[in-house]
């Protein structure tokens, strides 16, 4: 006999996920300040405790703010029921087809390459690859991920009926 609560948890397990940002980069600034502190101590010119401590705290604070924003606005999660890009979730049942990948050498853009990107950002975030999706209502949107090929493969397998549009996305 299965527990309904565990069934919901198993259903929500991610098929594909990207966090958007990594917390360990917060330590880079304080580590650099530590290296300068050790250099000050070795050279013997006087250790600048207050200035280096303030720099370490400020650097860690600003980078932590950036990582928190990236984890909220540039993360991707695909489950069995929905695709979330940033802060916007799209039910897989609303996706009619995954559009073909764009040719990087083509002179003209495919229609999906200028479509609205999922999430609340104005476009596809930097260093992310856009993926065209045709919706059941006829609209076209762009999903995106750092590993676009892996997300495209996961979407092609997860979309109901495995619909892959062989056209040019028009």
Automatic annotation (TrEMBL):
Q: Does the keyword Transmembrane helix apply?
A: yes
Transmembrane segment boundaries: 25-43, 49-69
Q: Which UniProt keywords apply?
A: Membrane, Transmembrane, Transmembrane helix
UniProt-recorded name of the protein: DUF3093 domain-containing protein
- Organism for this UniProt entry: Rhodococcus kronopolitis
């Amino acid at each position: 006999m299965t527990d309904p609560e565990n069934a919901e948890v198993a259903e929500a397990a991610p098929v594909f996920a990207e966090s958007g940002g990594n917390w360990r980069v917060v330590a880079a600034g304080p580590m650099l300040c530590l290296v300068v502190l050790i250099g000050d101590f070795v050279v013997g010119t006087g250790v600048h405790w207050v200035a280096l401590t303030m720099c370490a705290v400020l650097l860690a604070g600003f980078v932590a703010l950036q990582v928190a924003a990236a984890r909220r606005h540039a993360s991707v999660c695909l489950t069995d029921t929905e695709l979330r890009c940033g802060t916007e979730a799209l039910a897989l049942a609303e996706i009619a087809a995954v559009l073909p990948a764009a040719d990087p050498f083509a002179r003209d853009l495919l229609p999906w390459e200028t479509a609205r990107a999922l999430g609340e950002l104005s476009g596809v975030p930097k260093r992310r690859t856009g993926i065209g999706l045709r919706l059941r209502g006829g609209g076209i949107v762009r999903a995106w991920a750092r590993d676009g090929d892996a997300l495209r493969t996961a979407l092609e397998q997860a979309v109901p009926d495995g619909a892959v549009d062989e056209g040019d996305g028009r």
